[in-house]
Fold these 4 entries.
Entry 1:
Amino acid sequence: MLVKRWVEQILESESKGGFLLFFAALLALFLANSPWAASYFALKEVPVGLRIGEFALEKPLVLWVNDLLMALFFLLVGLELKRELLVGELREVRRAGLALSAALGGMAVPAGLYLLLNAQGAEARGWGIPMATDIAFALGVMALVPGVPLGLKLFLLALAIVDDLGAVLVIALFYTEGLNLGALAWAGAVLGLALLLNRLGVRWLWPYLLLGLPLWYLILKSGLHATLAGVLLALAIPLRLPRPFQGATREEEPEALELELETLEEEVEEAQSPLHRLEHSLHPWVAYAILPLFAFFNAGVALAGLSLGSVAFGVALGLLLGKPLGILLGAWLALRLGLGTLPEGVGIKGILAVGFLAGIGFTMALFIAGLAFAGELLDQAKVGVLGASLLAGILGFALLRGFQARASRPEAL
C-alpha cells in the first residue's frame, strides 16, 4: 500500500534521526563543560548577517538556527498534520478521538503539575515547556524494541503530531509579545496569495517556496515567532489524494490501493501531491541536519555552579509524571465515552509505555524554554528537560520491552 510505504519511510527517518539527535546533545553537553566551553558559547554568538542594498538582517548564529532552520522543521510539522488530517490516522473520527484526547491530557496535566511548583513570578512563564513531545527521540527509543505493533507506532506518531500542533498554538498565543500589525497584514497577504495558487491548481512547489521567504521575514517582523511561518505555509501546499482514495470507502481502500500499485505503479507515483513530495524531501534534512544542529546549539549548559530550583523540578515532574498520567487519563476518557478506539494489537499497557516515551520532550521543550526564559532560569529548564527526557526514555523502553517480552502475541500489548 502506498500510504503504508509513506508511513514506514517517515517512521524510519524519525527513528534514525533520534539517535543522531542524542549524540548531538551529548556533544553539546560535553563541550559546555570542557576546556573548550568558551569557544562553544562564543560560536553560538557569532554574528551572521545578510545585506542587499539598504536591506540588512543580522543575528547571532544560534538564532539563525532557531529562527530560520527551525522554520523548516515547523513546515514539516504542518505538512504532517495536514496529511494526517486528510489521509492519515487523524481522518477517522474514532482514531483521531483517541489521539486527540490523549494528547490533550498529555499537555494539560504536565502544565498543571509545573504550575503547582511555579505558580507565581517569572518561573510561571515556563508552564508550556513540559507539554512537548520529541517524536524523533520517542520513535528512536521505540525502534530499539523488536516486534512493536504498527498500530502503537502510528498512535505515537499521531499523538506527537497533535502535541506539536498544541505547542505551535501555545507559542503563537502565549509566547508572543508586541505585535506589529502592519507586518502581520502583509504576511496575511502573502499567505493569501499562496492559498490562491493552491485554489488555482498550481502544483509546482517553487512558487510556494519562494513565497515562504517573504512570509518568514514578515512573520519575524510581526512579533510572532518566525518559525510559525513554516506551519502557515504548509496550509497552502496542495495535497491531491492518490487515485485509489478517490471515491473509495474505508473498507475498499486496501484492495483498491493494492490493485492500483500492481497495475498502475508509475501513474500512482506521478500522482503524488506537492505536499507528499515536499514532506519526503524535507524529512532527511530535518532528521539528519536541522534537528541535530538545533540540539548542538541549544542543549549545551554549563553545570558547574548551577543550582537546581523549582523550574528544573517543575519541568521534570511534568515530563516524567504528567505526560504518562495525562496521556493515560485522556485515552481512558476517550475509550470510556466512546470517542475513540484502540488501534489493532494495542492495549492499555502499550498506551502507558507510549505515555512515558512522550515524556521525552527535548527538541520542542528546549525550543519553548528558549522563548520562556533567559540566563539561569533557562539553564534550569534545560537541565530539567535533559534529565527528565533521559529518564522518561529509559522507563518507556523498559516498560515496552517488558510488556513485549511477556506477550505471546503482539495483541497482548
Entry 2:
Amino acid sequence: MMKKIILASGNQHKLKEIQSILKDFEFELVTMADAGFGDEEIIEDGDTFEANSLIKAKAVYEKLGLASLADDSGLSVDFLGGAPGVYSARYSGEPKSDQRNNEKLLAALKDVPLDQRTARFVTVITLMFENGDTLVARGEVEGRIGFEPSGSNGFGYDPLFEVPALGKTFAELTEDQKNAMSHRGNALIVLKQMIREYYESTSNK
C-alpha cells in the first residue's frame, strides 16, 4: 500500500525534485496545502537548520496525523561566522527580497579577498513517520561568494554562489546541472539510504 507523506511546503518544484529522488519507495508525496493543512503559519524560530526542519515536520504531523517531510535550507558564509544561516530568506528583513539579501551579502563581504569568501549551501530534511519515528538528513554543497551577481537561473543567492570546479554560479547552471549537485539533492540521497536502513531494521524486529 502506498504511504502518504505530506510535504511541509507548497513549492511544486521542491515536490518534483523530492519525488524524483525518492521514487524507489512507495510514497505518495502531497503538499500541505493539498492535504488540507490550511493557511496557518508555522513559526520557524529554531536557531539551527535541524531545529527548523523538525518544527515544520512536527507541525504538519501533529495537525494532520500523517507522515510528514520538511526541509530547511540556507547559506552559510565562513567569513561571516556562518551567517546568514537560518536567517537566509529574511537576511535583509521583511518583506523578504532576494535582491536585497544579495545586496546586503555583497556589502558585508566588501573588500574581502576571494580566498576568504568560502561558503556552502546547507539543507536539512526531516522525515517523520506515522508512528513518530524520525529521520534527519543533512546535505551540503561547497562554493564561494562572487563579487557580483551572474546568471539568470535559480533563485535566492544562486547568482552569487560560485562553484569553483565549474567556474560558474548556481544561476548560470541548468536546472539539471544544479539538481545533480545541489544541497537538497545531496540531503535526499542521504535520506534515501537512511530510509532503506530504517525499513531493514524495522522488518528484522
Entry 3:
Amino acid sequence: MSNCDPAHFSEDERAKEILRDCDYSIKINKELARSGKAPRQIRVYADGAFDLFHEGHANVLRQAKNCFPNVYLIVGVCSDATLNKMKGPTVMNDDERYNVVKHCRYVDEVLRDAPWEHNDAFIMDHKIDFFAHDDIPYISEGTEDIYGHLKKRDMFVATQRTEGVSTSDIITRMVRNYDVYARRNLARGYTSKELNISYHQQLLFKLQNIIESRQDFFRF
C-alpha cells in the first residue's frame, strides 16, 4: 500500500534531524540549483496567511516545490496575532491554517507563527537557500518590499498567482450571498445566535425556506 504522510512541523524531531543533516556550508546559487546537480536538497521557503486555503494557495506551493529539482519546501504560516496586526482578522484560526497547509501534498515542513519579515538570523536558523513568492512588491512599515533585500541577493524565486481566485474573492462571494448561506445553515440546525442574526431575521429566513421548499405547489 502507498503511504503519504503529512508534512512535519518545524519543531518536530524529524524536521530538526533534516535541518541538522543539511550541510549549509555548501552554498547553492540558481545556476547550480537549476542544473539538478546540487549535492544536497535545496531548501526553499514560502510563506503566507493561507486563510480559506484554496487552489491558488496550492498552485503557489506547487510552483515553489517544483522551482528546482530536489526541493525541500518549508512553508511559513503567520499566526493570528501577526495577521490581525498587519492585515486584519482571519476567517480560519492559526491552528486550522497550520494544519490545512500541513496536509498539502507539496509541503515538506510547516513553520508555525512565521515572522512577517526575514532577517539573516532567520535565514541561517532555517538554512534557507531561496524564498518563493509572487513578484508583486509587498509593502510593509519602513520598506517598499519585504522581499526586496532577498531579490538583490538573488535568493528570490517568483511564483505566479492564480487569476480569479483569492481569499478576498471567496469572502466577497460569501458576503454577497449571505442570505442564502444563512438560510441554509438555519435549515441545518444552526441558531440565530451562532449566525449573529436577530430573531426577526431568523423567522424571515425560515419563512423563505418554507416557501422555496413548497414552490412546486405554486406553479401553474
Entry 4:
Amino acid sequence: MKKYFSSYWIKSAFYTILQRFSMTLLGFISYLILIRSLSTAEMGAWAIFLAVTSIFEISKTNLLKNAHIRFVSIQEDHTVKASIASSAFLINAAMNIAVIILIIFGADWLGRVFNSVNDLPDMLRWFIPGLLGMIIFSHLEAIQQSFLDFKGPFAGNFVRQLLFFSAVCAHAIWKIPFSLKHLAMYQSISIWIGTGVLFLSSRKYLLYKFNYTKQWLKEIVQYGGFIFSSGFVGQLFANIDQLMTATFLRASDVAYYNAAGRINQVIDIPSYAASDIMFPKVAQASQGEENGDRKVRYLYERMVAVLLSFTIPAAIFVIIFPHFVITIIAGSNEYAPAALILQIYMVMGIMRPMQNQSANLLNSIGRPGLCLLINAVSLVVNLGINYACLVHFGFYGAAIGTLITCIVGSIAWYIIMKKLIGANMKSIFVYMIDVYKLIYTKGMGLFQKVVLKKDNAGS
C-alpha cells in the first residue's frame, strides 16, 4: 500500500496544507483585528458578505476545477487539453458576469433579506472588480492543479490573502477607522495581484489557444453542472445557520455564529486540503480496470482516518474549554454567548471529515448526480429543522438544527459509502491506530535522540 503514497502525496500535501493553513491563519489574524475594531452589527454584516460571496466563489471554483482536473488528467493530447481549458474559461466568465449583473440589480434586495440594508449592498458593489479578477484567478488555478502542480496555486492564494491581511494591519497600526466597503475593495485588489502571481507560475502550462468546442462545453456542463449545484447546495448548507439567523433574527447575531465558525475553520484545514489532494488521484484510480475499487476504498479510508486522528483531539479540547477559547479569540467576554455554538460546531467538526471526503469521492469517480441529490436532501431537511429550532430555541436554534442534520447526514453518508465502495468503519479505526502508533514511535525516537545528545554532552 505504500506505493499509493509516493512523492506526489508528499509534495502536494505540503503545498496544499500550507496553502490552507496560511490562508486560514492570515484570515484568522485579520479576524482577530476586525473583531476588536468593529461593532457586532458590523461584524455580522461582514460575515454575511463573506458567506454570500464564498457560496458563489467556492461553488463555481469546484465546478470548473473538478471538471477541468478530471478531464485533463485523463487526456494526453495537448489540443484536447486546450479545448477543455478554453471551454471551462468560457463557462467561468459567463457565470461571473451573470453574478455581477445580479449584484447590480439585486444588491439592495439582498440587503433587505439579511437585515443589512446599510452595509451589504455597498460591499457587494465594491467586490465587482474582484469578481472579474476571479475569472482569471480560478482558471489559472485549475490549469495548474490539472497538471498536479500545487506550488503555483499556493503562491497565488498566499499573496492574495497576505495583501488583504496587510491592509487590515495597516488600519490597526495607524489607527485608521475601518470601513466595510473598503474591506470589500481590499478583497478585490488582492484578487487581481494574486492573479498576476498565478499567471507567472502558469506560463509553462499555457498554450495561448482559445479553441473551445461545443462538445466540451456540453461535457463540462453535464459533469460540472452537478458539481456546481452540489457545491452550491453544500456551501449554502455550510452557511445556512448564519443566513437564517440574519433573516429571522438580527444581522448582529451572526457575529456570534461567525466567531465560532472561524475557530471551526481551523479544525477543517486538513479536511479541505485532503480533498484537493485526493481528487485527481481518485479520479485516476477509478479509471483503472484492475483493483480500481480497492484503491478507491483504501484512499478513502486512509484519508478519513488520518483526518480524524488530528481532528478529534483538537475538537475535544475546544469542547472542554469553549469559554476560554472564545474569550481568547474575541479579546473580551462580549462574545461569551458564542461558547455553546462553538461546542456544537466542534461536535459537527468530528463528523465533517467523513462527509467532506465522501462528497469529494463521489465527484471524483463520476457520480456528481448522487452527490447533488444527497446535498439537496440535506439542505431541505436542514432548512426545515433549523426553522423549527429557531422558533423553539431562538438564538441557538440554527446551531442546534444544524447539529441534528449533521448527525443524520453522517449516518446516511456512511451507509452510502459502505454500499458504493465497501467502506468499513473498523478499517478507519485501524488506520487511526496506525497513525497514533507512528506519531508515538517518531516522538519517542526524537525524545531518545535529544536525551542521548544531552547525556553525551554532559559526559
